[in-house]
Amino acid sequence: MTTRGKKYIDVSGKVDSRKEYTVDEAMELVAQAHYAKFDETVDIAVNLGIDPRHANQQIRSALVLPHGLGKKMTVLVFATDDKAVEAKDAGADYVGLEDIVEKISKENWLDFDVAIATPDVMSKVGRLGKVLGPRGLMPSPKVGTVTSDVANMVKESKAGRVEIRNDKSGVIHAPVGKVSFGKQNLKENFLAFMSFLIKEKPVASKGVFLKRVSVSATMGPGIGVSVPDIRNELKSMGIAA
Asked: Deepest in the core among 77, 114, 188, 215, taking most CB within 10 A?
């Protein structure tokens, strides 16, 4: 049985686990219900009405949030020649091919947050699937990290591009900012995420798509968010929900 510390118990007392809060209430609470000395990440968890056993009901995509993630992203680009130059000029932290593939293979080097590759080098990068895949670092056409437009992808990644992918239970977990962002910026990031996710609903998914939504700071308790209120907020912004 997990024993919770006094600080966690104290902040948990601010949250009613049985209640689903409005978006405004949830964003205000998540900024209060934390206690770590570092700037905690605010995460979102969405239970979806999909059957992840079927490929046509799985979600894998990415978006750039209005206010980013509040984190310095380290970007690696697998590329050669002109595309390698483009990547460096765009601000990539590491650029190369054979040397980096070897470093990852032999040293299990993974000091980066995002990996991008041009299509022509994927035959070599593909060898790293067993290392990069389980860590969510494998470049993929589905989320745009296998691309010829490396400069744009580097800039988006640096700006806080968020990949979204459902797990085996049909739940999506993703960061939407930092506690220090404050209520308004967190709200804008949160609604941008939800709007994008709704648009990504698989055609094959029937019935209720958004089953439950919650947010939490890294060390804080989960805070339920009212799905009807999320839809109302989006509609007030002129976004179909």
From this structure: 77
